[in-house]
Amino acid sequence: MIHIPKIPFLTLSFLVFFGSICLYAQNNQASDYLVLRTSDTLYGKVEHIKEGGFGGRRFYKKIRITNARGKTKKYQRRDVSSFSVDGVVFESFWLYQESQSLITGALGNPKYTMDPNQGEQHFLRVVSKGRLSHYQLEWFEQGNSTLWSMSLLKKEKDAFLIRADQGLFGLKRKVLQRYFADCPELGKAIQQKQIRKVRQVVEWYNDSCMQ
Q: Of 89, 113, 115, 156, which residue is the least packed, with the fewest Cβ within 10 Å?
């Protein structure tokens, strides 16, 4: 008969407690998060899109976060500076286009000025960040549950972003050529269609264009 030693109750309690703390720390590290304008960071399950129901799929007016205890809090979008959902980070930008709708005027005016006084708040999906950063502006068409997006680019010192693509028609080549006048080789590659994707534009600029 195999003798199984008894573990003292206090030791067993400590092991259970310690294991719970470690498991919580691991889950906390891998969880969504929300950063407030006050710089406070909150961890938990973040929700910013209402899935189905009355009115169809759309953005919540208030961003929701549910902590480990199941308690949900709602925050005004203007009070949030960034958040992460399933490993995807979204950052707050106040974007303005003179005399144009941010979405419908996108093809005519590719420039989006960062203006907290006149701009409209949007949470841009972060694709990559560097000397040239790549974001995506997402939106829902009225009555349509499809999530649409456009690619925006921003150089480090710029106070504006430009639209880099035009949906199924590919890159906005003339716009990009003007924007990258500081890097003639990249402009030439864009003009000659050696580059066909926004990701390639970003990689070329960050890896090969001089600061």
A: 156
Identify the CA nearest to 87 among candidates 138, 43, 31.
31
Cβ neighbours for 179, distance < 8 A, ≥ 6 positions apart: 153, 162
Average pLDDT of span 144-148: 85
Region 69-94: mean pLDDT is 97
Lowest mean pLDDT among 20-34, 88-102, 174-188: 20-34
Contact (Cβ atoms closer than 8 angstroms) between residue 199 and residue 134: yes
Angle between helices 184-191 and 198-208 (to 10 degrees): 160
Distance CA 87, CA 103 (A): 26
State how far the Cα of 130 lies from the Cα of 203, in Å rounded to an integer: 10
Per-residue pLDDT at 23 exceeds 60: no
Percent of the chain exceeding pLDDT 70 equals 78
User: Whose CA is closest to 159, among 101, 94, 109, 110?
Assistant: 94
| Residues listed for the chain | 211
Distance, in Å, from the CA atom of 110 to the CA atom of 97, rounded to the nearest integer, reads 9
Measured between alpha carbons, how far is 52 from 106 in angstroms, rounded to an integer? Answer: 27
Asked if pLDDT for residue 33 goes beyond 70, the answer is yes
